Amino acid sequence: FLALWIPAVIFIGVFGTRSLLVAAAIPVCYGIWLFATDIFTLSMGLTTILTGEVPILLSSLLFTHLATEKEDTSYKQLANQFSQVSDKAEVVITAITNGVIALDKQGTVELINPAAQRLIGWESRDALKLNYKSVLKLVDKESNELTPANDPVERALSTNEEVRSEEYTLITNSGKKLLISLVASPVGQMGSGIIIVFRDITKEKTEEREQAEFISTASHEIFV
């Protein structure tokens, strides 16, 4: 019986805590039965404890240690995966030719990619932790300052809905004015912040205007 019991309970920890408790109860019940039948002796009690409970204790310690090591390994793997994803995301954002600015729910700049830095003339170390209005200076078609009603960034923050527009002018840090295409997209749930993606469309708009003027002039000369 002992030859079978000891190897069996050493590995019973693999089945979990409930199995350990059941196994631990068996020697206790056996000891109670010995005591109740008046055949209990000190040597028999010690034998019951040593052969019944000690292997269970060893099993518990062994498999608890193995489970902890497994959890640590899983945690390290998960952390490594998150790190790899984060690194890839950073590479992608850095490589994007459009300007990208990430804001928290208060409108504070949390991320600004190299393209955005070049467009607006702000270094990352200077722009981070500032309110977006200090960094991304927008005016309307008439060069008027934006109000909460027509500010696309503020609308995206307050409504948690995407806002797209090509009707705004960006004033860079050097005072240069650029016509931009802008998309302000919420991130996750309400109050999680937004991502602003923008690009310079000054050249495109100029070419469109020149093309429209040329067509208009040519049409006028043909029909006059």
Explain this structure.
- The protein has 224 residues and is of the alpha+beta class.
- The protein has helices at 2-10, 17-36, 42-95, 114-120, 124-127, 132-135, 152-159, 202-223, and strands spanning 99-103, 109-112, 137-139, 163-171, 177-186, 194-200.
- A 6-stranded antiparallel β-sheet has the order 2-1-6-5-4-3.
- A hairpin with a 5-residue loop joins strand 1 and strand 2 (109-112).
- Helix 1 (2-10) packs parallel to helix 3 and helix 2 (17-36) runs antiparallel to helix 3 (42-95).
- The longest helix is centred in the N-terminal third of the chain and has 54 residues, at 42-95.
Summarize the topology.
Blueprint: H1 2-10, H2 17-36, H3 42-95, E1 99-103, E2 109-112, H4 114-120, H5 124-127, H6 132-135, E3 137-139, H7 152-159, E4 163-171, E5 177-186, E6 194-200, H8 202-223
Antiparallel strand pairs: 1-2, 1-6, 3-4, 4-5, 5-6
Low-confidence stretches: none
Helical residues, percent: 55-70%
Radius of gyration: 36 Å
Summing up helix and strand content along with how strands pair, one would put the structural category as alpha+beta
Tally of contiguous helical segments: 8
Percent strand equals 15-25%
Order of secondary-structure elements: HHHEEHHHEHEEEH
Number of strands: 6
Largest sheet: 6 strands, antiparallel
What is the distance, rounded to the nearest whole angstrom, between the alpha carbons of the first and last residues?
Answer: 116 Å
What spatial order of strands do you see in the largest sheet? 2-1-6-5-4-3
Q: On the 0-100 scale, what is the average pLDDT?
A: 76
Anisotropy-based shape: rod-shaped
